[in-house]
Amino acid sequence: SVVVAQAPAPPSPQVLAEQAALRQVCGVCHDTALVAGPLRAPEVWEEVIQAMVAMGATGSDRQLRLVASSLLRQYGRVNVNTGEAWQIAAALDIEAPLAEAVVRWRTERGAFASPDDLAAVPGLEAQTVNDRRERLEF
Predict the structure, then answer these.
(1) Are 81 and 138 in contact (CB under 8 A)?
(2) Considering only 12-16, 36-40, 59-63, which range has the smallest mean pLDDT?
(3) Could you give the CA distance from residue 96 to residue 86 in angstroms, rounded to a whole number?
(4) Which member of 24, 36, 76, 83 has the lowest number of beta carbons within 10 Å of its beta carbon?
(5) How far apart are the C-alpha atoms of 27 and 115, rounded to whole Å?
């Protein structure tokens, strides 16, 4: 039998906007490939962004939010019981409406105790949660 490799899905408009903002804001001073390291919480990435702004990085509020989202998507860790929808969307690499459903679910039903609890949110696949498990705190 012949196995046909599927081409990866093209990046979403959100991811493309994040990548553009990262290049526009951060790429002016350094190669964006320099951004790496351990998984960090949203507040830690916010401190990094503010330090870069203090050293001269410039960008609109929207661009800085897109940079934060990009950093969370690539190198972020989020508490699903306290994180904002945009942070959860980035850390889980899911669309905003699904992340908003996660926030509604926890508001209506209480805190998530485990990845299995999180995977119970309608529309959120267990495989997605499992694939990004190291990025989640409960």
Answers:
(1) yes
(2) 36-40
(3) 6
(4) 36
(5) 35
**How would DSSP label each residue in the chain?**
----PPPPPPPPHHHHHHHHHHHHHTTTTS-GGG---S-B-HHHHHHHHHHHHHTT----HHHHHHHHHHHHHHHB-EETTT--HHHHHHHHT--HHHHHHHHHHHHHH----SHHHHHTSTT--HHHHHHTGGGEE-
Structure tokens that stand for 79 in this block: 């508490």
Indicate the pLDDT class of residue 79, thresholds 50, 70 and 90.
very high
* pLDDT at residue number 69: 93
| Residue (of 124, 34, 108) closest to 116 by Cα position | 124
Kindly tell me if the per-residue pLDDT of 90 is higher than 90. yes
Q: State how far the alpha carbon of 33 is from the alpha carbons of 11, 36, 93, in Å.
A: 18, 7, 19
Tokens of residue 73, six digits = 């998507």
Pairing between β-strand 78-79 and β-strand 136-137 as defined by DSSP bridges: parallel
Q: How far apart are CA 106 and CA 82, in angstroms?
A: 9
Q: Return the structure tokens found at 4.
A: 């046909």
